[in-house]
Amino acid sequence: MKKAAILFLVFLALSLFSYTVRIGDTIRIEVLNRQDLSRTAKVSLDGTIPFPYAGNIEVAGKTVDEIAELLKPYVEKVVKDPQITVYVVNYAPMLVFIQGAINKTFDISIYPNMTLTKLFSFIGISVDSKVDFENIQIKRGNVVATVNLLPYFYQGKFENDVVLKEGDIIYLPPLSDEKIIRVLGAYTLELSYEPGLKLSNVLSKLGPLDEKYAEIENAKVFVNGDIISVNLLDVISNKSDLELLPGTKIYIPKRKENYVYIQGFVKNKGKIEFLPEEKMTLKILLAKVGLLNEEVENEGIVVINNERRINVKDVILGKEDYNLNVGDIIQVLYEPFVINVVGLKGGSYTLSYSEPRTLPYLIKKVGISSPESIESVEIVRNGKIQDFDINTLIYQNPSISLEKYDTVVVKNAQENAVYLTGDVSSYVSFSLNEKITLQRILAKVGLSDYRKIEKITLNGKELDFNKDMEIEKGSILYVSLKKPVYVTAMGYIKNTGRVEFNYDETPDLKTLFGKLGGLIIGPDLYYTSDKVYVIRNGQIVDTLDAQKVYKGEVNMNLENNDFVFVTEKEPNYVYVFGKGMPNTLVKFKNTESFDFKTLLSKIGGIKEGISKTVTILNGASKTTFTWNEYTNMELENGSTIIFDVDTENYVFVVNASGKPNMFYLDKENTTLYEIITRTEANKAYKFVKLIRDGSEKVIDISDVEYTLSFNVKPGDIIKIIDAPQNIAYVLGEVNKPGIISVNEGTTVLEAIISAGYFGPKAAPSSVYLYKGGINGEAIKVNLSGAIKGGTIEENPKVEPGDIIYVPSDPFKAAIDWIPVINNLINLYNNINGLLSN
Q: Which of 108, 136, 395, 476 falls 20 to 30 Å from 6 in CA-CA distance?
């Protein structure tokens, strides 16, 4: 073998000194002072070119000097002592073929004396590429040589470099796991092993390590099945070092983050981080973010995780504090003190914390200083009326307290008028001698359709608004209107969204699904509507069978802000593995028998020559049998069917989407980390279920240290079972509303794409991003460019805990959607948990 390699290298060296013309080359022939004989010609497929007095003459395989000599006798027929020059104008492509870790071709025709190391520079191969540089193979004709380029990469030695030739096949062996050094955890890095590589060399490639970000004092080195604890500070300070072996893995734990999310009336919103030495208290948090103004400082309220409420002022004065936990969601709320004035000087007035919140002060604030034109002043609170004398209010300044959102009616003595409060707030005036009647009042305020009215009261007595009656001047009428009933329906139905029931419609499930196009029901469908959940005030008040609702056998009346969710009935399914069989997830239609014979018909039967020994794994049970045409059995949902596979040498993996695969264990001590890596599972997934020897175990694969030390065994079944750790909600008019995984760079548009993209009724110009949760800051995002093909001006990033709501109505404000979103959140936090049990 060594002799063949030496001969090969000698052959390569000799090829440097001459170039022979090839098919496809374009050559130039110049005869001095004879333009009629000078010409440019392309070498044809038969290796010839046309030339005067010679016809088609073969030039392929000859040097340019040889071609000049070949043409000379023909030129001498017409030119004495001709001077002939031949050279190549354009070279035909000279391809070399790169295979293995990289698969591509490269044209070396325009690069004279192209060498292997030069080729690496052109195609971007470096010392960090996952290539086994020690065993590169070059095939030329029937000769194969192995080249070791490690000395070139690590010592700058060119002795083993090779000049390439057309047709060479260069095989770059992929670097096996045993030759890769990996850094995991807070920092990630992969590099090729080289003899003498030390831990300090790896750290130098990582660059400076941040002690606040990583626990560099608690690193672990996994080598040959051993776990070595290392303080990297000692390595950095040259107090210690460790020589590494091929396949070594270095785990640097990420330091636990201390952070919370805060929204509301603060200067700095979003994710707020605490230094390791900082106490995570509410008082320190408010100091870090800053409050918007003195009103918030004095009358704001802090809400922690939608549960605990604390006055901002008590926190600032040190009367109360709260120890925060990582990931807490904090909202700082503030509502201004607003009073509605009807009549003279009517309007809405805001009283700051420093202003007296009394009726006399309000009278002065609105600009009433003289009692002559005022008949009386009345406070309407919760439908009750209190009457006050204007002279007393102006001149005696009594202490009459106001409450937030009180209505104050200022009656004008000279006006022939009445005052409406409640759902209709209006000052209704009449001509001096005009008779005031109830139906005239309603006509003046536009309430001509009495079906909209719930009730009208005067001095606590309910009036019959269908009958006209005279109303005394200066009366205060309290008007209650019938409210539309709004119900939101989501889930597995033909259309989803918020449905409005007018006062003349019956709000029930039958009408709801009729408005939305109906349930998805059909005998030949894989997926159908299953359960109908009615959620009211965050609680499930009823669960109905979708089939019975569809047939009209059951129905239910709905109330305002009810949320209806229809679950999807998934088909029965099994996982299939085996030699000569498709590794696949097999689903059954609703009308198909869920048994072994039906399974065989769906996968095309057991092919001839394949053993009929079958193993069925279902949770902790294992059944093995030999199938024949008379054998049949009922299957259990989620079972694993294995057709004649040597379970002594395979592990079986089912990814999060249900796709099965199997991996041959070609070495001892294969770790769970290696198997998960080979499946290319999303690193955000947190748990797998391991089925071994009839027992089940749930493993947290985010614990990299444990995953690296846990060895799988032949016959193990590994299922990725949960949703990603970092989640946000995408709700509303998207095709797949619910929970999605987010990473550091996820944007609103990317999140919507993850949720199946915009639905047909979506209003992409009015997408709302609620930072940190439903009570956080609502950011309106215009993504209409994603639909119309235009530019997207804004596309903010999404963080864990955020909520994205895609509405159907672009004209509603963010606050209008909060009842709908609250129901959706209750759904995905409560109902999905119910369904999984």
A: 108
